[in-house]
Amino acid sequence: MSSEERTQALALLGGPKAVTTDSRDLFRWPSVTAEDEQAVLEVLRAGSMSGSNVTRQLEAEFAVYQGTEYALAFCNGTAALLAAMYGCGVRRGDEIIAPSLTYWASALPAFGLGATVVFADIEPDSLCIAPGDIEHRITPRTKAIVVVHQCGHPADMDAIMAIARRHGVKVIEDVSHAHGGLYKTRLVGSIGDAAAMSLMSGKALPAGEAGMLCTDSREIFEPALALGHYERTEAELTLPDLKPYAGLPLGGYKHRINQTCSAMARVQLRHYPRRMQEIQEAMNYFWDGLEGVPGLRAHRPPKESGSTMGGWYTPLGHYLPEELGGLPVDRFIEAVNAEGGDSWRAANFPLHLHPVFNTADIYGDGRPTRIAFSHRDVRQGPGSLPVSEALGERSLGVPWFKRCRREQIDQFVAAYRKVAIRADELKAE
Question: Of 17, 143, 170, 203, which is the active-site residue?
Fold first, then answer.
């Protein structure tokens, strides 16, 4: 502890704030320029919001970026995930395996296909689905494993793909948090059988409101297209079991993206590698500044692993209360925010404990939808996924820096460091 740190009281206890400059520009997102505005205006003036010419350009460019044979744009990421499940053969009575600690769209679309969700626990370091908790959950009805690269951290894809190949199960990567991230130098979203992702306005790669599906498989691409892109099926369906149904959407869905979003996405994609690099530089600088501080650990892969965090969407940190005398995370967050440091409870509510996955009869089948067409009761109660259930007390949100301005970031580092070093004062109060 420096002499200055020894003399400055916590802001929560009457001391000066650590963050003293206006830092709002560090976090402003999405980055919308005249180039985005012009692209959107061209669509509006052409009256082609419901067309497909701009969307097809986006899909071609996105496939090149992602390194996959096919890319298919959607109205949102949830629709892309639904289509990925359908493309991977998920049907009534089938099962998917997904992490419980994720946004609901990674799992809940399975209900719309008459399938059910079996949740697996997460790894305590990566916070991604734990390979060691997957294999024993596979049954003859398992069709797909949904892998979420949680908060940008790549999942252990080598281990997951090995399990999937042994059992003939498809792997769907949810890349909504990790656009442009690398797993051992390979782009996430290009490793599994299919990838789906949100491009909504808050994501690292934003398009207003949109989704994208990527795959190398024509057998996945065409069902995904047929499910909700009816206006394209006449020209694009080639598989014999699908071609007779061209002209109407198999799912009764309309998944078409608004081309104002396609236009914005094209511009954002062109600039994303540079913007992502600055985000990575800023976030790594923040965590490097907190290296060795008690109670805090970075949520990021080892630097020598060849893996990266992509655009680092919704970054969080590991919180170790045992290193701070048992100080509850809520009290730590309160003190950091008093310093101007920007923190919050980071963990989603575990999906396996939510009533929608346990008691809701959504479609009026006379039994909970999760088991309405299942041959077994797959519901999982408290204590079944201990790492997922404990994460709320062992993680906290940290600032998502979009620009690498080190002098300003240093103030946020000082806020977190100050609270961690003086945690005893919060316990004694």
Answer: 203
